[in-house]
Amino acid sequence: MHKNTPLRPDGFAKYRTRQRQQANATFQHLPPSRQWALRRNLIFVGTTLGSLLVVSLFAKAFAAGGAYKVDDGAINAPGECNVDGWFTRHRHDSSTHNATLSAACTSGAVPWLQWGAAVDDSNTQTQVSPQLKAQLWSRQELGIEVALSAAAHFAVDRRHTFDGADLSLPLTWQLLGALRLNVNAGWAHAHDEGEQNHRLTWGTGFEYSLADSLTLIGERYGQQRGEQAWQAGPRVHIGRDVDVDLVVGRSLIGDRDQWLTTGATVRF
């Protein structure tokens, strides 16, 4: 058995050069559409992290909904705000993507009401969604929180501006110290190509804390005669200031499309 010997400076440089060449060769072997998708996701993550790390110097962050569809029963503490940003690209159609920026705050004057808005920009339209969320009931000794959330959706690049509305009743149960369960029941109104549809919506999800720096999240959601899908992935906590999500999702209807979402959250 031979002993490992440290690399000399010139040997280390050659080793790093070989590593870079191997990485470049692997990247170049990917199809052009995959190269562009990977490059765009990396650019988005880098830009988001850079911006949020600057904000995090004076921010205090906790877990938030981010790109996940199933909401929880909690709201921000009075006087606190959160900002979420995420980018989604579909696997089988690289032209299908969307970027979302969402913000929400709770005023100290009305500590039971959280207000905010989201901007969603896709390859087909841009949508603005004002949002309200009121906490109806909270029992810390039981680990149960119940809220009522509402949102309206407006398309900014169409003649018919109003695009729909959502109403949801999210419930969270802290089953164990490391495990939280979320359940949603609601109603959605949407203009689908000029046709007005009303559908019941539902969702279930969990958050399991593996460590102070890592939480695993999964959810299953859907709506009556409409979307059915699941999403899951890790949430990395960078200190107490920034959360970073990597989310994999798949539709359970139609062609069973798949997507990858990268995002980040900050609270202050």
What this model shows, in words?
The protein is 16% helix and 53% strand. The protein is of the alpha+beta class. It has one domain (32-267): Porin (Beta Barrel), CATH 2.40.160.40. The protein has a twelve-stranded antiparallel barrel with strand order 1-2-3-4-5-6-7-8-9-10-11-12. Strand 5 (144-155) and strand 6 (162-174) form a beta hairpin. The protein is globular. The termini are far apart.
CATH class equals Mainly Beta
* Unreliable residue stretches: 1-9, 51-64
Count every helix, treating DSSP H or I runs of 4 or more residues as helices: 2
DSSP, total strands: 12
Element pattern in H and E = HHEEEEEEEEEEEE
Output the strand order for the largest sheet: 1-2-3-4-5-6-7-8-9-10-11-12
CATH architectural type: Beta Barrel
The CATH homologous superfamily is called monomeric porin ompg
What is the beta-strand fraction? over 45%
Overall geometry comes to: globular
What fold name stands as the CATH topology? Porin
Provide the domain count. 1
Integer-rounded radius of gyration? 21 Å
